[in-house]
Structures are given as C-alpha cells and as structure tokens.
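Contributing new records

If you add data, match the layout below exactly. Sequence lines come first and carry their own label; structure lines follow with theirs. Keep one chain per record. Anything else will be rejected by the validation script.
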Amino acid sequence: MAKETQTKAPAKEGAESSLEQSIARMEEMVPVSLPIDSNLRKDDLVVRVDGMRYQIQRGKTVMVPRKVYDVIEQSRELDESTARMIAELEEEYNSKTSQ
C-alpha cells in the first residue's frame, strides 16, 4: 500500500501544478485593441468573467487578463460565423426567388 500512495502523490502534485499553471495563464495580462465602429460600436465594451466586470475602451490598446481576451475573441468568432451564415442564407433565398 505504501507504494500506491507514493505513486499517486506525485501525480496529484503534478495535476495541481498543471491547474495552477492554467490559472496563472488565464490571469496573465495581454494586450487587446477594439476598433471604433462609428455606426454600431462606439461605446466601451463590458465583459463579465468569473463575477468580475471589465470595461474596455475602444480605439486604444489596453491590457486585460487572458480570460477576458479569450471571451472577446470567442465573441468575434461567433459574430463572424453568424455573418457568414446570414450571407449564405440571403444568397440562397435570392437565388430561389429570382427564378
């Protein structure tokens, strides 16, 4: 039994170390720049992550935790995907109605 305990303990420490590294990476500060879109998006962007509220000014490069940057990037990707889908559906609709 002592051998089992000894072999499991390093694995647990390794997992904790990996978790700590992941947490530290998410807290690491990274630059983000949000464009000013005079038509739609000119106000600050508010992002909420883990119970914290981050207000990010547009038109300037600011430092945010990586977890906030990741949320912003995921949002951008979803916006782009939605825009592509809408364009495809509009094209399909227009080709069917023009016949």
